[in-house]
């Protein structure tokens, strides 16, 4: 009887697999995407744009197309037999208490906590470290489905006032609200139309913030934004009376940020035309007659004022130091000619912060964190002993504090909080999460591989111990490669599902990022952008050559600029991977600068209007323009969101329309369009779990792999 039952189970599994293979071979009923005769001309070259109409996110035609695409996609995903098991396991893993490092404001310590499956983390507080925690702000009460999130917070210096920003549906447009921290009652009106900004308090009287005028024509979510403006809002007065301090038409095409030094003597203003390089200005608020003083008047380098001691300014900069340095100067003569090194440049990338009257230097060494503590004159006091090899952050605090709380994490080390005694340098465990997995079952290695031009590129590879290198391991290759962003070791709850089911996770630190300073970044920009794609392709080839995986078991993934990375890789090397996940990607490289804040990405990409040479280079790799007729592309699931006003969803819409028309073969090419969501920040946990379950299930299914969690349920 037992033998007969085993045969029946085996036959059921074979029949199930046969049905799955047959379903995969059937042609999917992709929605018909209408074409228009739009043609743009660049330097005498005509470029058709048949799906231009999809750029109109307000049209009923676009809405119907989105619904039709989602109907096909979710029908396909819901037919994957083990998807519910994947989702169930993700829910089990996410269901643990997560705390975030506390910060002191006034008499209270404030900290975020998530009980497990709450859509948004809750802001708690307690009076003193031994006080009883109480809910201070619960974003889950903003909207039942969790699609309104906290998107920025700021306390006045004495802790009596709290300003916070909210994002609706993931949009970059914010509303600002101020409450009295004792009574929790709102103070003044709700501010609107804040964008790319925090709140910088000046005493308890008011604060500085930045925003744009809403687009006068077109969509609020996709219309081009210009003339960022810095305002001062006096508490208790209407927003219409807010005074513009800086920006607007006098400083056009700039992203403007502001903050005050801890003693609130200086207002610091940064102005940038793109995501790297900024002007630097300062105003002495102790003198009512003072003017805004220019420290840096160009966009060639990155700078910020770290701290001050009276008139002495400490400035973090990469001027003359691609890996960054810390310099000092005086407010009476703050220009670069007067700068003197406090912490000179080294071979490793430097970040700086202050706490307890000390400087903390965070060095990135082959993408891993090392921290040193200095006095305010730049004298080394100690190397900070970290719990292991990984990533640490949080070495910041007020001048009068004697301790700080930092967070340490790695690929198999959940984010853990440590209390650090500034005087002794001793770290003690403060809070360690209890996650349903055993980190000792996994290992992480870092390898260095050669890219196409011979450049050595580092890559982290994470997998379960004892895995057999037979070329058949499902492998998830993820990277970014742009805008000076560094990918360091970090823990992902959802990634456990991939790893515990025999998957490999690989994360290369490709050019365009900031892992080796500005030179590494610049080597992946504009006319050198192909280096980024070559580095990523070489990472995949390394994994295949060394039998971690093979083409049939490789998935490539990335988001935003990383979505461009995947789009360019799959159009240049459609044979490299079995599965592709381009998320919220920049896919139309000829028109990206026409939407929202896209013009600010020109420092990394260049624009099609710059020159004939730049146009031809962009046209040569732009994913939308390089999908070829009759080519078999990987099984693809593009992901985007209807409220993404950072990288507008039209990029993804046009790419998938092209792909569905020209792709040949049985691999599905789908788009998953999230509703009431944006570029990623503030996404509810419930949506994160659903999306990740769909991604992993899609990958395994198209690799022909039944994950162990599904087999155990047979």
From TrEMBL:
<comment type="similarity">
    <text>Belongs to the peptidase S9A family.</text>
</comment>
<dbReference type="InterPro" id="IPR002470">
    <property type="entry name" value="Peptidase_S9A"/>
</dbReference>
<feature type="domain" description="Peptidase S9A N-terminal">
    <location>
        <begin position="31"/>
        <end position="432"/>
    </location>
</feature>
<dbReference type="InterPro" id="IPR002471">
    <property type="entry name" value="Pept_S9_AS"/>
</dbReference>
<keyword id="KW-0645">Protease</keyword>
<protein>
    <recommendedName>
        <fullName>prolyl oligopeptidase</fullName>
        <ecNumber>3.4.21.26</ecNumber>
    </recommendedName>
</protein>
<dbReference type="InterPro" id="IPR029058">
    <property type="entry name" value="AB_hydrolase_fold"/>
</dbReference>
<dbReference type="Pfam" id="PF00326">
    <property type="entry name" value="Peptidase_S9"/>
</dbReference>
<dbReference type="InterPro" id="IPR023302">
    <property type="entry name" value="Pept_S9A_N"/>
</dbReference>
<keyword id="KW-0378">Hydrolase</keyword>
<dbReference type="Pfam" id="PF02897">
    <property type="entry name" value="Peptidase_S9_N"/>
</dbReference>
<keyword id="KW-0720">Serine protease</keyword>
<feature type="domain" description="Peptidase S9 prolyl oligopeptidase catalytic">
    <location>
        <begin position="489"/>
        <end position="703"/>
    </location>
</feature>
<dbReference type="InterPro" id="IPR051167">
    <property type="entry name" value="Prolyl_oligopep/macrocyclase"/>
</dbReference>
<dbReference type="InterPro" id="IPR001375">
    <property type="entry name" value="Peptidase_S9_cat"/>
</dbReference>
């Amino acid at each position: 009887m037992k033998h007969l039952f085993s045969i029946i189970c085996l036959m059921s599994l074979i029949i199930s697999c046969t049905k799955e293979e047959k379903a995969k071979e059937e042609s999917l009923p992709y929605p018909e995407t209408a074409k228009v005769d739009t043609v743009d001309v660049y330097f005498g070259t005509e470029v058709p744009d048949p799906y231009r109409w999809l750029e109109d996110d307000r049209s009923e035609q676009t809405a119907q197309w989105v619904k039709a695409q989602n109907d096909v996609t979710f029908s396909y995903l819901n037919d994957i037999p083990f998807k519910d098991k994947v989702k169930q396991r993700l829910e089990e893993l996410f269901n643990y208490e997560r705390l975030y490092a506390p910060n002191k404001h006034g008499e209270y310590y404030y900290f975020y906590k998530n009980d497990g499956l709450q859509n948004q983390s809750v802001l708690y507080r307690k009076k003193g470290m031994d006080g009883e925690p109480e809910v201070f702000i619960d974003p889950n009460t903003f909207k039942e489905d969790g699609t309104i999130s906290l998107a920025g917070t700021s306390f006045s210096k004495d802790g009596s006032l709290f300003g916070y920003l909210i994002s609706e549906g993931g949009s970059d447009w914010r509303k600002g609200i101020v409450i009295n921290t004792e009574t929790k009652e709102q103070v003044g009106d709700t501010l609107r139309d804040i964008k790319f900004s925090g709140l910088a308090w000046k005493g308890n009287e008011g604060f500085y913030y930045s925003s744009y005028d809403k687009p006068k024509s077109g969509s609020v979510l996709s219309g081009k934004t210009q003339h960022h403006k810095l305002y001062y809002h006096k508490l208790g007065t209407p927003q219409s009376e807010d005074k513009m301090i800086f920006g607007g038409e006098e400083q056009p095409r700039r992203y403007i940020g502001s903050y005050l030094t801890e003693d609130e003597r200086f207002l610091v203003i940064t102005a940038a035309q793109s995501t790297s390089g900024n002007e630097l200005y300062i105003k002495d608020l102790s003198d009512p007659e003072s003017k805004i003083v220019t420290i840096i008047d160009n966009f060639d380098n990155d700078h910020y004022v770290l701290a001050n001691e009276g008139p002495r300014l400490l400035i973090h900069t990469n001027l003359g130091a691609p890996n960054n340095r810390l310099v000092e100067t005086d407010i009476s003569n703050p220009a670069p000619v007067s700068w003197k090194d406090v912490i000179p440049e080294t071979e490793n990338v430097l970040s700086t912060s202050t706490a307890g009257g000390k400087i903390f230097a965070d060095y990135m060494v082959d993408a891993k964190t090392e921290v040193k503590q200095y006095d305010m004159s730049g004298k080394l006091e100690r190397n900070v002993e970290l719990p292991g090899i990984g990533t640490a952050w949080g070495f910041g605090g007020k001048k009068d504090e004697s301790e700080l709380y930092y967070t340490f994490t790695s690929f198999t080390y959940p984010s853990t909080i440590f209390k650090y005694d500034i005087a002794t340098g001793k770290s003690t465990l403060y809070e360690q999460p209890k996650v349903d997995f055993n980190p000792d079952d996994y290992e992480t290695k870092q390898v260095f591989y050669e890219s196409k031009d011979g450049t050595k590129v580092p890559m982290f590879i994470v997998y379960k111990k004892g895995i057999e290198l037979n070329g058949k391991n499902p492998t998830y290759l993820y990277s970014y490669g742009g805008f000076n962003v560094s990918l360091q070791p970090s823990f992902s709850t959802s990634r456990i599902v991939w790893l515990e089911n025999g998957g490999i996770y690989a994360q290369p630190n490709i050019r365009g990022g900031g892992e080796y300073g500005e030179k590494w970044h610049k080597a992946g920009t504009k006319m050198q952008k192909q280096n980024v794609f070559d580095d990523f392709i070489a990472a995949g080839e390394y994994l295949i050559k060394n039998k971690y995986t093979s083409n049939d078991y490789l998935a490539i993934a990335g988001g935003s600029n990383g979505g461009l990375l995947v789009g360019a890789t799959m159009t240049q090397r459609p044979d490299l991977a079995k599965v592709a996940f381009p998320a919220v990607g920049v896919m139309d490289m000829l028109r990206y600068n026409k939407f929202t804040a896209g013009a600010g990405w020109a420092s990394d990409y260049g624009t099609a209007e710059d020159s004939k040479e730049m146009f031809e280079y962009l046209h040569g790799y732009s994913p939308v323009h390089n999908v070829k007729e009759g080519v078999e592309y990987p099984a693809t699931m593009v992901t985007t969101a209807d409220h993404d006003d950072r990288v507008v969803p039209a990029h993804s819409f046009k790419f998938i329309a092209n792909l569905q028309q020209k792709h040949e073969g049985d691999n599905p090419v789908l788009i998953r369009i999230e509703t009431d969501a944006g570029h990623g920040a503030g996404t509810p946990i419930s949506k994160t779990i659903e999306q990740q379950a769909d991604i992993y299930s899609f990958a395994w299914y198209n690799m022909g792999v039944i994950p162990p969690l599904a087999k155990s349920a047979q």
